[in-house]
Queue: 2 jobs
Job 1
Amino acid sequence: MGGVPTTVERRGELGYTWSVDFDEAADRLYGMVPEEFTSARDALAKEAKAAGDAALAKRIKALRKPTVVAWAVNRTARARGRELGRLLDLGRRLRDAWRSQDADALADAGRERTPLIARLVRSVREEAEAAGHPLGSTADLEIEQTLDAAVVDEDAAEQVRLGRLTRPLSYSGFTPAPVVRPAPGPAARERPVPKAERDKAERERHKAERERRIRELENALAEAEQAAREAERGRADWEAERAEAVREHERRAARVETLTAKLAKAKDKLNAAEHRLEVARREETNAGRAARSARGRAEEARAALDEARASGG
């Protein structure tokens, strides 16, 4: 299993052992303040790549920096898990009640929902301020929409629970929170609704729908702009990676060229040495023959001299 580096001392130098998996790495990164995220992520990805775990390095590098609001919700999920757990439990009860069409359970959950979300919005603000990143005035809506999405959508609830949001969430589907109204009495059924009231209700309905649509478009714009920024960061990251790869390729190519030239010279010297060895062996053989021939003639001359001396006496 791949992991992120844990600093250790090895042979007097700073080294790394790999013992943390991807989930632990992601938890560590998304628990950091936003300004530390990118450098920490890039360092972990670089170390994973240097350790030979290219797949882990790629997964870590793909992690996106959270917006400040998303970071604040992530921090709250870690620091106030019990408080957030009550909201997520409420979401489970609400969804179960909706599936079973339990009107009483829906009504009970609906009464808890608003004040619980309001308290958590304050908690998110408090956590952000405690960490030195107070949130702006427009953050409450994004926090509320994120928490509301966690109540009505199971996938959103899991994202919030994990504390790895990169941007605020929103839910545009049908919300299981019907308004329970008492049945009208006979008098109410008989009284016609004045046209002015009908017109006012229609205007209010249109206004609410328009405001809801504006919020959806604002969220979509924010998400699109965030995605564009992340895509640009990703492009810049890979541009830097490509530039580094080009520089490394050029260094390696120059080194290969140098070694190739040295190898050619070494081969020339080897060929010269082999030629010298061949000549030396050949001349050694010739010299051996000449030496043996000379020793034979010397022995013949000595024998002739000895014979001449002996005959003279």
Note: The CA atoms of residues 27 and 273 lie 65 Å apart.
Job 2
Amino acid sequence: MSLLALSFTLLFVIITMLVSVWQKLDLEKDIAIGTVRAAIQLLAVGYILQFVFQSKNVLFIILIVCIMIIVAAFNAAKRAKGMAGVVWRIIFSIATMEILMMGLLLSLQIIEATPQYIIPLSGMTIGNAMVACGLFLTQLKRETESSKGEIETFLSLGATSRQAVQEVLKRSVKFSMIPTIDAMKTVGLVQLPGMMTGMIIAGADPVEAVRYQILIIFVFTSSSAITSMMLSVLCYKKLFTKDLQLKDWRSK
């Protein structure tokens, strides 16, 4: 794709901004900032990946994956303002998931141990885990607020903190899995996923592209489930004070 052709795609952004102005949605500033940031970030990443792919240095690969995990964790942690230490719990959950997933893929020789495979797959997996973490924390906050009476009743009857919030955690984990499960149900019928579409556009055999996409879907499902479950185990105690009283999220 030429730079001229790429520049024409800005028409879609301009049209969206004009519609925002017309409907008085006040989205044009956010759209403009998002467009500039996305372009700069992607161009910078493109040059960085070009260098890493050529060098094939393991330390660079590890550094990039670590940066992905940290950025994802800080972004997901915004959904749980007021919960101390949540960033480190998200980092631990995502990092553990990444080690398990990538370790399995490499040990079984499902993918090659090259930057061209490790970095893109890690990016997609970590990004999916980030969304799952954000959804889990968002729903956890809602469920805790709406089920406050139920939780306090359990505590008054002698239940442990884990027993008191077990159903809340279960519903929150299920909620975090909704996008992934819905995508599994409709893939190929409603949407053609990005990796598969990119490979086909690049000239790859459609059947080969489908095989890689199936791999991604299975990894996405596992990564969402593992990350959400681990985060639920690591975070539920943060819902309570030292005296086992439920914290008031509304004041956060």
Note: The mean pLDDT is 87.
